[in-house]
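Slide 14.
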Amino acid sequence: MESFLTPKNIYVGDEAELMILLSDISIDKKLFTSENIKHKTFETDAISILKIELKEFGSRQYLAIRLKAWNTGDVAMPSLNQFGIISDLPSINVQSVLTETNSSLQEKTTALLIPGTSTFIIAAAFVLVLLGVVFVATYQKFFRNKIARNKKKSLKRLQQSSTKLLKTKNFNAKSLVVSFEKYFRVCISDYFNCFDQSNVEALTFNEIESILKARNINKEIVSAMHDITCDIESVRFNNADFRRQVFFEKIKNFIQACNEEIKK
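Slide 15: predicted structure.
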């Protein structure tokens, strides 16, 4: 039986037209009249018949059935015997938008890229990473240099103040050491990151040394600082063995040990 569906692929609820070659259909001529089939409609659970009419294509005549299907898969056409159509009509295939058929609703396509785009993206990513590494390295170097400059400034101020005290004509060990201790504590606060000006003044030298040792500060620096603090404590308790020149040599050794560490 020659037939075709327009459109070819339909989904549930779509309106379509089934065309069947009239000469292939067994009909009851008494019932099959233009008036009998004209504008006839009826419904079943699976399909709704909206219109039945005859159409001609060239010299051939077709039975045109306008319909809507409500089930998926192969849907059988209802009997149209009451209209004089005796033959069993061909079923129609109805697809579901919720399930995949032999062909996807939308075929997967690859992203359209201009030739060389992937290479450009990789190169750009490499440049960005390289710039990030350079930036971090430059920042770290700048930060280290800034810390080194601050340490050198604090050591220079300590050296200048000690030189000034060394040249004092009216020598008094206690007043000299008291004056130096103020500069020394400021230097300790500026040089080491584990103190600030307020708490370094409240700590004893033994406490300061303990904190520096716990932080694994350079042993030569801690040892040179210990030599200085011993003389300060000695003068504080009126020890008569204080020698100014030796004291300033110890200050010089401390400054030298600190400068050596900065160079590393």
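Speaker note: The longest strand covers residues 47-57.
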